[in-house]
Amino acid sequence: MPLHRLIVPVAAVAAAATLALLAGSAHADSAPGSAIAAKKPVTPKTVVLDGSRLARTRDQVRHVPALRRDLDALTAQADAWLTEGPWSVTDKPQVAPSGDRHDYLSEAPYWWPSQPKTADNPWGCPYVQKDGVRNPAIDEITDHAERGEMFTAVYTLTLAWYYTGRAAYAERAALDLRTWFVDPATRMNPRLTYTQFIPCKVDGRGIGIIDFSQQFTDILDATAILDLGAPTWTRADHDAMRSWYADFLTWLRTSPNGIEEAAAANNHGSFYDMQNAALALATGQRDLARQIVEDAEVKRLDVQLAADGSQPNEISRTRSWHYSTFNLVALTRLAAVGEHAGVNLWTYRTPQGGGLATSIDYLLPVASGAAAWPHPELEFSRYAASDIVHAAADHGDRAARKAVPLLEAPPGGDLWPLRPAVEQLDPIG
């Protein structure tokens, strides 16, 4: 995680001395896009990832065996993405209610038809909610799945280029980005008006904004890295992406769906604030980013984090482990954005005595395999907590540091040393 004031080394994923060497940072001072220059600097102006830490890791990656193994795993994933995509919202067979194929469209994952589908009732309406139980029919609309694949591909390819210098990785990432966001024939409109619609009920919902906010900061960081002078990535590409980001942020802050999502008290509100703060930082609005993070202290942490570390809004869900880790993904990533903007959420204590570290510590017995999760969970994945534990360890949490060697690695391997930013690692609807 980005660390700007004080860094405590991560304990033992590889050798402790190696990770201590990689810890710590200061945010890059270059203006957005200025990295596209003859000197080709290596410190990107990222908004979640710590650019200085990435640069130090880049210097070490070929000489430290543990990092070399991580790089092999990363490049294997990137190699697989070289032949996938590019993706576009225009791929889907359906059209949003607007009639514009460039509008993103997705269906609510936990809503199901209650009646047989007939010619007179093709959707099987009315729909009923089954919390945590995913309706597979939503995959008939391809935007949600293709969006996820594109985000993951771009992030993986860009990091692989950064650490190896292989042009093919950057060129493919650039193609994927242009196809989804820039090219007039295939670009997505910068709005989420028709996300997570419910048949026969509503055309789109504010709650659907999480389709993007759960992972969109990966795209912001990827373009910041490509701005360092990646092959085929141009000033025009940078400007087009920044314009898309600015339009999207305006929509998020002014649209009915955005205003609705801002009012959410649970993980949706956390992800909304995190995405907005990151977009503000990526578009040069540092004061706005700082204000969003500062406001989240009272608006999010005070409301969501109990004194014992539990998260009442999340443990009441049928997938309480998933949503407890999920909300902390948003809050720890918001803390990373805050560090770039000059706010330290890690030291903030709620009036009840809670805080980020306390809520992560609440998960440690389960994350380390020492205890069973005491709340309802339909689909338990222990590794869902791995990144947030890494983040807490980086920020000086001694209990988290002791838990790091006991974490369950996600299916793609533990790549924290190469991308020290909190992701959501278990499947989500």
UniProtKB/TrEMBL annotation:
<dbReference type="GO" id="GO:0016829">
    <property type="term" value="F:lyase activity"/>
</dbReference>
<feature type="signal peptide">
    <location>
        <begin position="1"/>
        <end position="28"/>
    </location>
</feature>
<protein>
    <submittedName>
        <fullName>Alginate lyase</fullName>
    </submittedName>
</protein>
<dbReference type="InterPro" id="IPR008929">
    <property type="entry name" value="Chondroitin_lyas"/>
</dbReference>
<keyword id="KW-0732">Signal</keyword>
<feature type="domain" description="Alginate lyase">
    <location>
        <begin position="88"/>
        <end position="373"/>
    </location>
</feature>
<dbReference type="InterPro" id="IPR008397">
    <property type="entry name" value="Alginate_lyase_dom"/>
</dbReference>
<keyword id="KW-0456">Lyase</keyword>
<dbReference type="Pfam" id="PF05426">
    <property type="entry name" value="Alginate_lyase"/>
</dbReference>
